[in-house]
Amino acid sequence: MDRAWHPRVSMHRRSLRLHGYDYTRPGVYFVTICALSHQFGQVRSAEMVLSAVGAIARECWEGIPIHFKHVRLDAYVIMPDHLHGIVIFSDRPDRSAAVGHISPGALGAVVRSFKSAVARQVHALRGSRHAVWQRNYFDRIVRDQADLDTVRRYIRENPARWVRNRH
Questions:
Q1: 3-state secondary structure the chain
Q2: What angle do the packed helices 52-62 and 107-126 form, to 10 degrees?
Q3: How far is CA 4 from CA 7, 8, 9, 10, 20, in A?
Q4: CB contact at 8 A, 50 and 41
Q5: I need a labelling partner for 19 at 20 to 30 A (CA). Which of 138, 142, 158, 160 fits?
Q6: Is residue 47 within 8 Å of residue 78, measured between CB atoms?
Q7: Domains of the chain (ranges plus CATH)?
Q8: Cα 139 to Cα 29, 98, 127, distances in angstroms
Q9: What torsion do the CA atoms of 163, 39, 114, 88 make, to the nearest 10 degrees?
Q10: What Rg, from alpha-carbon coordinates, does the chain have?
Q11: What is the rounded CA–CA span in Å between residue 25 and residue 91?
């Protein structure tokens, strides 16, 4: 083990972030955020049909640039139990480095805010406080235009792939 033990962090729960990378940097990020169950809707004829919970997730996702002025959204898809999306960060003058922690406006803060907003509205809709999300999220730094095109195609084709993988 090369990391010191910390009582609030389980030894089995490692960060999924790229070690030493500043997630406030301008760039393009491909994120996947997983729900605890199939609650966002259904795929029918290779098209996603959102449930009321899925519509909340869409509204909150599309609202991210309202709350984070340095963020633009690109392609995204909400699937029955997860969301894939491309998040584009521009530079901002008040940027503080986010290496090793979640700095305001960093990718982790954006995802945390999104997940929190969805959970709050879903709890109000259901009248209960059952968990909506799995812990954490997955990200990949998009390196160049070819990579961005590949990620966009992956997102666009996700509902059709869902149908093929279920049959």
A1: CCCCCCCCCCCCCCCCCCCCCCCCCCEEEEEEEEECCCCCEEEECCEEEECHHHHHHHHHHHCHHHHCCCEEEEEEEECCCEEEEEEEECCCCCCCCCCCCCCCCCHHHHHHHHHHHHHHHHHHHHCCCCCCECCCCEEEEECCHHHHHHHHHHHHHHHHHHHHHHC
A2: 150
A3: 10, 12, 10, 12, 16
A4: yes
A5: 158
A6: no
A7: 27-166 (3.30.70.1290)
A8: 7, 15, 31
A9: 10
A10: 17
A11: 7
Mean pLDDT calculated for residue range 60-74: 96
Tokens 């605890």 found at = 36
pLDDT for position 129: 83
Query: 90-122 pLDDT, tens per residue?
Result: 987 565 554 555 677 889 999 999 999 999 999
Q: Cβ(41)–Cβ(51) under 8 Å?
A: yes
pTM above 0.85, yes or no: no
What's the mean pLDDT when you consider all of the chain? 85
